[in-house]
Amino acid sequence: MLAASQDGLVGPSGFSAERAMEWIRGQLADSRRHGFAGIRVALDMSWALQPMTGIEELPTLEEEIAAAVSDAEMSVLCGYDRSGSTPSHWR
Predict the structure, then answer these.
(1) What sign does the dihedral 63-65-66-71 (CA atoms) show?
(2) Which residues on adjacent β-strands are paired with residue 11?
(3) How confident is the model at residue 3 (pLDDT cuts 50, 70, 90)?
(4) Which domain holds residue 80?
């Protein structure tokens, strides 16, 4: 099962860690309904390099993902295209 994450992570009003976790939990629930033991989540996070509302919530999302991974059969990989960013993005 494959799902696009952009709509789940970023809404019309910007980024929300709560919205993103709702999407991730929904994906996990859907996978269980389809008989899968767990999920692998690979997120292209290049959108996070753009100015937007709520971007300061990314650390909250990372903490919540870490907690969710410990409670579920789930692995998460977040990738960033470093060629499109500056060193200040990586602090």
Answers:
(1) positive
(2) 14
(3) low
(4) 6-90
